[in-house]
Specification:
Helix content is 27%, strand content 17%. The protein is of the alpha+beta class. It has 3 domains: 1-47; 53-270, D-Maltodextrin-Binding Protein, domain 2 (3-Layer(aba) Sandwich), CATH 3.40.190; 281-346, no CATH class. Strand 6 (152-159) and strand 7 (162-167) form a beta hairpin.
Amino acid sequence: MNNNNNLFKYIFAVVVAILIIYTMYIILHNKSDVTNTSLDQTSTLTNIQTDLRFAIAELDTINPLISNNRNVQEITKIIYEPLVTLNENYKMEYCLAEEIAKTDDLSYVVKLRKGVLWEDRTPFTADDVVYTIDLIKNGGFNSIYASNLREVIEATVVDETTLNINLSQSVPFFEYNLTFPIMCRKHYEEEDFSSSEKIPIGTGMFKISEISSNVIKLVQNEYYWNTDRKPMATEISINLYDSIGEVYTAFKNGEIDILEVKSSNVEDYIGTLGYNKIEYKSRDYDFLTINTENPILSEPEVRKALNFAIDKNNLVGSCLGKGYVASNFSLDMGFWLYTKDLNTRI
């Protein structure tokens, strides 16, 4: 009986050992599969599309100082650069400028970034900035950036990397107006800028390599100064269309990769499936206020009570429709100066 028991215990132990080994094999095998899958998923992240297709409808000119096309202004930001730019919270960041000092209410000193090259390898200097300011103010082509420099009476070169800007009157946060693209003076020497057929050259991460009747080709600018912002895309095609309707059709047919629109009812034209959408809140707004000439409404407590009592979302939805949101203050759409305590003020 003892022998049978010992034999049974031996067989049982062997079976248990086999089961343990098999279980460990399955676990390790599955773990290996998961690891491989993870590696495969990670590796697909490196298979990023390096050639992108954008669109412009009703192109007037690719020159950003002259163009009145909003898509041109947006797309060419990767070709032509300003002295300063605004981040996602509308806070100023230096670009071609390295420092801007306000010496008094009417005078500014701008120090430029050193070592910046135009795409033809000529140095970027203060002379280019003064040239651009003069073009915008006196070029005769009604640039969309003219209002940025309305109070500028003079811009003068101090040295290759320094210039002075003088104003006719004080402009609060004037530095925020220096977001216009800078043009190269030497590129247009002895030419009429407004009628020139030359393709503008820039200091940005991309440059124009080809322009035809239906596409503008961009490639990486090998002399781009900001090595920390090397783009993953190597080539960009800007497809040209006669109308926004053609752009919508091209997007639905997969002929373009990225579509930038300002319309609040774009889904009516391109549907809701087959693409990812990112919404950015703009700073355009309709302003509704209370008549404080009324003795009752002049009391802050009454205005605060009305502020909390009014269903703003329902009001916006019924009057303006979808695509609009209620705002308590003109700065609350991601602006860096906005604080939540402004919600209680009216």
